# Entry
Amino acid sequence: MTNNPVMLITGASSGIGAATARAAAKEGYRLVLAARSADKLQALQTELGGVSQVLVIECDMQDNTAQKAMVDQALKVFGQIDSVFANAGRGGEPGGFSEADPDVWKDMILTNIYGVGLTIQHSLPALRKSKGHLLLTGSAAGRVTIPGSMYSATKWAVSAIGYGVREELRGSGVRVTLIEPGMVDTPFFDKPPAHALMPEDIARAVMYAVSQPAHVDVNEILVRPTPAE
# Structure
């Protein structure tokens, strides 16, 4: 039986999550890929080595029971979890605080904050056991003030979650890394941005963090596009 490390990725069906899955597979990781798009996950499973190497789980990150089942299934199949990349998130809020749809806000807050909290809570026992690595997708938007942006507020919250969970885990051997991208060309946008990073750029940042020796804890990686001329 292989003892290759196991990485769980949420929001894995496209964009940064899918790019990170590909990058991790190249480094020999077994993968647990979770998202709401089952068909895209199954395509990734086929691409990255089939059922022996990749477990796919259809999961709504706002569902506490589903998130617990996700972690339980990962442990049942692979017996361990060495890295968790809590990457699932959403945006989309035209109108700012004056005119945005409150239902869009609610869905975004529940996914970007509550969903991340659930992923952390349910995966921490396995990460404590493996002395593993927790990574969170924050954002450059969680470091600056963006007028009228509830999305930015949710990413400020993710930054706070990262700082807080790192302190909670101090001395446990579990490392915590905030991955903070600037604009990335992903399905997050309706139209491809003109000047942006690619998902693969962020995947390399994730793999850099997890590839460090156990005594090195990369706290934050802020990645922005090189400014245009």
User: Anything to note?
Assistant: The helical segments are 15-26, 38-47, 64-78, 96-99, 102-130, 150-168, 199-210. The chain has a mean pLDDT of 94. The first helix runs from residue 15 to 26.
